[in-house]
Known about the structure:
Layout: E1 3-9, E2 12-19, E3 30-33, E4 45-46, E5 51-52, H1 60-78, H2 90-101
Antiparallel strand pairs: 1-2, 1-3, 4-5
Helix pairs in contact: 1-2
Amino acid sequence: MLKEYLEVVNGVATGGVFNNNPGITIEDSWVEITNEDPQPSIGDSYDGSVWTLTQGGTTDEERLESIRNERNRLLSETDYLALSDNTLTPEMATYRQALRDMTVGIDLDNPIYPTKP
Length: 117
């Protein structure tokens, strides 16, 4: 199972890592992101138990990076469906393409993610 961690320095998420290698040592500064979490990203605050989302940052570049991070996370959830031994349904192919295309002309204050079929 693929796990996602965010590195937290001085209460702020500064970087992320995906981990599916049990031999990798998880540092104390890395916080595992679970499905129950509100899907934090770089720039969000963490007090040791609760995430405070900052809308992905204050600059347009930071907000776009946050949107791309969430988009990439959503794509990674369906990557296994696109492997050569699977047949990707047209609906799933459309969903994945919509995720890839969503940052073109996006409203950074109100990003709308496609609905997973």
